[in-house]
Amino acid sequence: MKVPGVFYNAKSFKDVPAGTVIFEEGAPGSEMFGVVEGEVEVRLPNGAVRRLGPDDTFGEMAIVDSSPRSATVVAVIDTKLAVIDRHRFLFLVQETPMFALQVMSTIAERLRTATMSLPPSAKAWRLAPGASRRGQSAAQAMVAAWPTAPVTRRGRGSRP
Hints:
Layout lengths: L12 E4 L4 E3 L7 E7 L2 E4 L5 E4 L4 E2 L1 H6 L6 E4 L3 E7 H10 L1 H20 L14 H4 L3 H8 L15
Helix pairs in contact: 2-3
């Protein structure tokens, strides 16, 4: 999913000449990027390569969970990037719901693509970290960790 033009009003831009490494796999990351103009190549450790163009995002996982970069990204042609740090990311998520949907959609698509390329034996569900010690399934562990709020039910015709 793309959100055309969402990056044109970004606060910070970076012009990247063709062939420049934007970031390398394993490096720490504190920002994500949106392609304004040009094209980048995302090179995964397993040899897979994906090309991204205008209105595509990359590097979002480092913002979402503070993890090291999972791929190396190189500019294929001269490229203009919108640079989005965590503060700006949180602002965009709050003020532009379509931006949040784009990021979630991108992560979901990449997860599906990665899962489809796995052999069937690797697709078996596994317990969440620490779940086996508590005798919980992965789903139970996720539900137990999810913040809850009291739920009230209203009958038909009742008012809030």
